[in-house]
Amino acid sequence: MTLVSRVSAFFLGALAVLLATYSVLLFLTAKSYLDRQFDEQLRASLNTLVAAVEVEDDDVKWEPSDHTVTLGVETGVEDVRWVVVDEAGDRMDASRNLVPAAPTTVVPADSESILKFARDWRGTERLSPDGRWRFLQYRLAAPHPKARELRDPLERSELIVTVARATDDLHRSLAWLAMLLVTAPVLCWTGAALAGRWFTRKALAPVGLMASAARTMKTNALATDLRLPVGPSRDELADLAETFNGVLDQLYDAYERQRRFAGEAAHQLRTPVTVLRGHADVALRRPRSAEEYAETLETVRNQAADLSKIIESMLFLARPTGDAEADLQEVDLGEQLAAAGARWQSSPRSADLTIIPPAGGLRCRAVPDYVRQIVDNLIGNAFKYSEPGTPVTVRAAGEDASVTIDVEDQGIGVRDDERQEIFRPFVRTEEARRTGAAGTGLGLPIARRMAEAMGGQLDCRPKSGPGSRFQLRLTKEAP
């Protein structure tokens, strides 16, 4: 989705929500008002009729001759209809628009339903089954009614007053209001969408021009070719283009260095930090003597020094290949392997590790920190991808002009077609991914980069039987 579309979609979405909220609130408010007005008129009619009933201690009377009731004279469907029935359900009186004055006139179906409802006292506000009529009822009863044979013809023990009113006009008004509240916002929203789209497209046109120019650029182009168009308007977009033009000539190289450094640093710095935390956790597990604390602090200081060296090495790796050379020195492989055994002594699998030192003195030209990191990486991978209890062997040997360090395990192994792929950044074998072991696929690429920086080579060699074999080859020190 383009930027114009996203900006337009955001504001149009917000506008739609506001209009919809406004329409819904206005409709609900109007509906509540109209319903209340409808009910108040219906209730006022009921109160008028109730006031015309004479309630005595022993009887209830309805005498229409004593009262003038004008309700129900109109014949419109929206007008109030009423009926008064006694305790037996017999009609005492009714409005003219409910029951015609002429006895031979046929009673309409709506009137029949109202009369039927009036005889069914429930004492609640109700709607007819089809929802067209709203009813209200009120029951008036004598506290101590006299016997039926002692009553006058107009006397009853109780009366039920029922009023009804059709909801057709109310529903029709609400339907028109709903149509208006839907149509008007839609028209407003459509107009805002067209105008907003045009304005947003015009305002963000420089962004499209810059994107088009950027797509035509080449990463190896000269700085004079890496330029974005600057629009005539002196606004934020023009300032952005000018600022961006000032750094495009360095962007590609800086980005590549940063990407490599970030991935490699995260991988390489994790191990020494874990060692530091491990020593601190062990020291804090129980009270210790001053000598033990001093020994732990000495270990932490040494690890911190190693960490500083790793950072310096990573800074070296972050630079383009060939821009700097490694500071090679004479390295005793026997000492390196012995130190590696000591470092892994605290590992839960230290008993599985077998280090075979070289016969006699064996020296090479290398960077000690690089050798240590490569060996630790290979041992760590061997532990990670092999079962506890299976051996991991590290041996060093000398040849005519080179020395080798081999790390072998009996783990999941590496297929022949994956031996070169695993040295590419972020690549892991299918079996390694299936086991679910943690990893980023950066350890081996970093290790190979270190080996190449020392003029050596790191490969995954064929191995008979299960597991894998990695070999580090370095230049032998002249005698």
Tell me what the structure shows:
With 479 residues, this protein is an alpha+beta fold. Among the domains are: 52-166, no CATH class; 325-476, Histidine kinase-like ATPase, C-terminal domain (Heat Shock Protein 90), CATH 3.30.565.10. It is 48% helix and 16% strand. It has eleven helices and 15 strands. The protein has helices spanning 3-51, 109-119, 168-203, 205-215, 236-245, 248-284, 290-318, 333-343, 368-384, 430-435, 443-453; strands spanning 54-55, 60-61, 81-86, 91-94, 126-127, 133-141, 155-156, 158-166, 329-332, 353-356, 363-366, 392-398, 402-409, 457-461, 469-476. The strands form three sheets. Strands 9, 10, 11, 12, 13, 14 and 15 form a seven-stranded mixed β-sheet that branches. The chain has a five-stranded antiparallel β-sheet with strand order 4-3-8-6-5, with helices on both faces. A hairpin with a 7-residue loop joins strand 14 (457-461) and strand 15 (469-476). Helix 1 runs antiparallel to helix 3 and helix 9 (368-384) packs antiparallel against helix 11 (443-453). The protein is elongated. The relative contact order is 0.07. Mean pLDDT is 81; it is low at 102-107.
Quick summary:
By secondary structure, the chain is α+β, with helices and mostly antiparallel strands.
The name of the CATH topology of the domain at 325-476 is Heat Shock Protein 90
CATH H-level superfamily of the domain at 325-476: Histidine kinase-like ATPase, C-terminal domain
Secondary-structure class: alpha+beta
- Which CATH architecture of the domain at 325-476 would you pick? 2-Layer Sandwich
- Oligomer class: single chain
C-alpha geometry = elongated
Mean pLDDT equals 81
Q: Could you tell me the number of beta strands?
A: 15
The helix-strand sequence is: HEEEEHEEEEHHHHHEHEEHEEHHEE
Give the helix proportion (percent range). Answer: 40-55%
